[in-house]
Write a structure and sequence with these properties.
This protein has about 120 residues and is an alpha/beta fold. The protein has two domains: about 50 residues, Signal recognition particle alu RNA binding heterodimer, srp9/1, CATH 3.30.720.120; about 50 residues, Roll (2,3-Dihydroxybiphenyl 1,2-Dioxygenase, domain 1). The strands form two sheets. Strands 1-4-3-2 form a four-stranded mixed β-sheet, covered by helices on one side. The chain has a four-stranded mixed β-sheet with strand order 5-8-7-6, covered by helices on one side. The protein is built from two helices and eight strands; from the N terminus they run βαββββαβββ. Strand 2 and strand 3 form a beta hairpin. The chain is globular, with a radius of gyration of 14 Å.
């Protein structure tokens, strides 16, 4: 077995795929009305975006009685400040709660948290 793709639910697969394509510098490999797939240029695990008509934006940090995040992406970077600026320019927001100095929790346009973390 081999993990090939991580899927994120979204009300607008094309829009969220464009966000991550810009963030990561990846190309869209497959685009259909309800599913869009980004393939990693190095052949690694890709990202897929699937329409969920009843999508509820997750809350970060978690709050009782509100939609919880089910997973988040970890994105290694060499320059945390530059990566954060790039993410914001692509359409991300920086989460108000930051649990670590060497990590920036950001939210994609649909509210999925992702972490930018300093590799060096």
């Amino acid at each position: 077995m081999r993990l090939t793709t991580v899927n994120l639910d979204t009300p607008d697969p094309a829009a969220l795929a464009r966000f991550y394509a810009g963030l990561l510098g990846w190309e869209i490999a497959v685009e259909e009305a309800d599913d869009v797939i980004l393939r990693a240029p190095d052949g690694g695990v890709g990202l897929s975006f699937q329409r969920e008509r009843r999508y509820v934006r997750p809350t970060w940090p978690a709050e009782a009685g509100r939609q919880q995040m089910m997973a988040h992406l970890e994105i290694g970077v060499d320059d945390l400040a530059a990566a954060q600026a790039h993410a914001v320019a692509c359409g991300a927001t920086v989460a108000p709660f930051q649990p670590q100095d060497d990590v920036r929790v950001c939210l994609d346009p649909d509210g999925h948290p992702f972490c930018l973390w300093l590799m060096s």
